[in-house]
Amino acid sequence: MTKMTAVLSPAEASDPAALVTALAQAARSAQRALAAMPSAARADALRRAAEALRAAGRQVLAANAEDLAAGKARGLSGAMLDRLMLDEARLAGVADAVAAVADLPDPVGQVIDAYTQPNGLHFQRIRVPIGTIGIIYESRPNVTADAAALCVRAGNAVVLRGGSEAVHSNRAIHAAMVEGLVAGGVPAEAVRFIPSQDRACVGAMLTASGLIDMIVPRGGRSLVERVQADARVPVLAHLDGICHTYIHAAANPAMAEAIAINAKLRRTGICGSMETLLIDAAYPAPAPLVAALIEAGCEVRGDARIATLDPRVIPASASDWGTEYLDAILSVAMVDGIDAALAHIARHSSDHTDAIVTADSVAAERFLNEVDSAIVMHNASTQFADGGEFGLGAEIGIATGRLHARGPVALEGLTTYKWQVRGNGQTRV
Question: Could you tell me the sign of the dihedral formed by the alpha carbons of 157, 162, 168, 170, in that order?
Fold first, then answer.
C-alpha cells in the first residue's frame, strides 16, 4: 500500500503560494508513478475508491447537511442548493460514476495514427497523460469524485480547489476517494485537495506554470472570466450555458412540449438547462406550449409577440437573451423562420448546447450544420448535454472553446499526444 500524504509544514499551510506549490510539486512527482501503473491497476484502484465512497456514505451525507444548512443561512438560491445537495441516491450515483470510469477504455497508449516514411523511419502518434491538472470549481461536490476519477484513469495527477459552499462535502468525498485509491496502489499525493478557502489559493494555482499543466474551471461566469484573465497556465473552460431550443414550424406539438418542459425544468441548475426558447411564427400551437411551461412552474419572459399569447408572460428585457438563469425562468422569443432562429442563436448563444425540434429533416440538417456550438441536437432535450449520457462516463465539464477539447470533456480530453519515431540507423543529409 502506498503511504499516506506527508503533513504540510506550518509555513506551507498558512501561505497560499507556498501551500499550492507544495501540493502541486507533490502531485507532479506522484504523477510519474501513477502514469507508470498498468491500466488494470488504475482501474482497480478506482473501483476501490467507489467502494470507499459507498462505505463513507453516512459521513459524506452528514458533511453535506452542514453545507446545506450553511447555504440556506447564506441565502443561496434554490438552484444553487440543488447543485449542492446530496442524498443517498445522488451519492450512490457519484460512486457508480467512479466505478463506471474504471470500466471505460483507457486512452493512454492509444495509437492515433502510424506510418512509415520512404527513408524507413516509422512514426507513431500516441495518447499520453497531460500531467498535473488543476480543477477550480464551485457548488457541486460530485466534481471532487468525478475529477479525481477521470484524472487518475487517464494517468494525470490532480489538484482540487472546491468552493466554500461545499467545503465539508468536498473534504469528506476526497478523504474517502483517497482511502480507496491508496488501497489500490495510487500515490495519495496524486489526488490533492487544497484545504484552505483563502481565495489567494486560486491565484496561486493560476500562476503555477511549470507545476500545473492545465487548469479546468467549473463555476459561474465570474470564476471562469477570472481564470481566463489571470491564468499563466493553459485553461480548458466554458462560460455560460446559454442553451437554446428552437421549435420549428414542422415540430410535433406533443414532442415540442415534452422536450421544452424537460429541457428547462428537469434540473434548472445544470449548464445544459435550456435558457431560451425560440418558437417559429409558423408553428401551429405556440400558446399551449407557453401555457404548459407556465403551468409546470416556469416563469416565462417573452418578447412582444409571445406576450400576446398568455397574460402571465412577463415582458423580456434586452439582458434576458444573454442570461443563464439556472432557475425556473425562461426567455421566449418568436422568430420568423429558421434564418431568424439561426441569427438569434449566433448572436446570443454561449456555444454550449442548442437544439431544434422538427419533423423536417432538411431543416434539421441545416441547423445541425450551421449552429457552431459544442453540442447541437435534433429532437432531444438539451439536458442530455452530459458526458455520462454521451457514453463517456463522468465528465470534467463541457468545453465551449475550440482548443484542445470541445463538448463533454472525459478521458480523451484529459490526454495529449507524443510522437514515437523508430529507425534503423538513419541519418539526415
Answer: negative
Q: What are the structural domain ranges in the chain?
A: 10-236+396-421, 243-384
pTM above 0.90, yes or no: no
Q: Hunting for cell 449548464 — which residue is that?
A: 271
Cell of 420: 514515437
318 SS3 class? helix
Give the residue from 228, 215, 155, 141 showing the smallest Cα distance to 191.
Answer: 155
H-only helix segments in 127-267: 142-153, 167-183, 200-206, 221-230, 253-265
The reported pLDDT for the residue numbered 4 is 41
- In the structure grid, which three cell numbers stand for residue 185, read together? 496502489
Q: Where are the beta strands (DSSP E) in 208-249?
A: 214-218, 243-247
- CA dihedral (259, 139, 136, 275) positive or negative: positive
Beta strands per DSSP E along 336-426? 353-357, 375-378, 397-399, 407-409, 415-422
The arrangement of secondary structure in 243-384, i.e. its CATH architecture, is 3-Layer(aba) Sandwich (3.40)
Beta bridge partners of 420: 124
95-147: per-residue pLDDT in tens? 999 999 999 999 999 999 999 999 999 999 999 999 999 999 988 899 999 99
Read off the C-alpha cell for 206. 493560476
Condensed to tens digits (0 to 9), the pLDDT of residues 296-305 reads: 999 999 999 9
- Confidence at residue 11, expressed as pLDDT on a 0 to 100 scale: 59
Whether the pLDDT of residue 3 is over 70: the answer is no
- What are 222-226's contacts with CB under 8 Å, separation 24+? 223/136, 223/138, 226/202
Q: Report the SS3 class of residue 2.
A: coil
Extract the C-alpha cell encoding 202: 486560486
Cell of 374: 459544442
Instruction: Mention every residue, 6+ apart, whose C-beta is less than 8 A from residue 112.
Output: 125, 126, 127, 417
Instruction: Give CA–CA dist 20/13, Å, rounded.
Output: 9
* C-alpha cell of residue 342: 439561426
Tell the CATH topology of 10-236+396-421: Aldehyde Dehydrogenase; Chain A, domain 1 (3.40.605)
pLDDT one-digit tens code per residue, 161-194: 999 999 999 999 999 999 999 999 999 999 999 9
**What is the per-residue pLDDT across 28-38, written as a single tens digit (0 to 9) for each?**
999 999 999 99
Q: Give the closest residue to 412 by CA, choosing from 132, 94, 239, 155.
A: 155
What is the number of other CB atoms lying within 10 angstroms of the CB of residue 175? 16
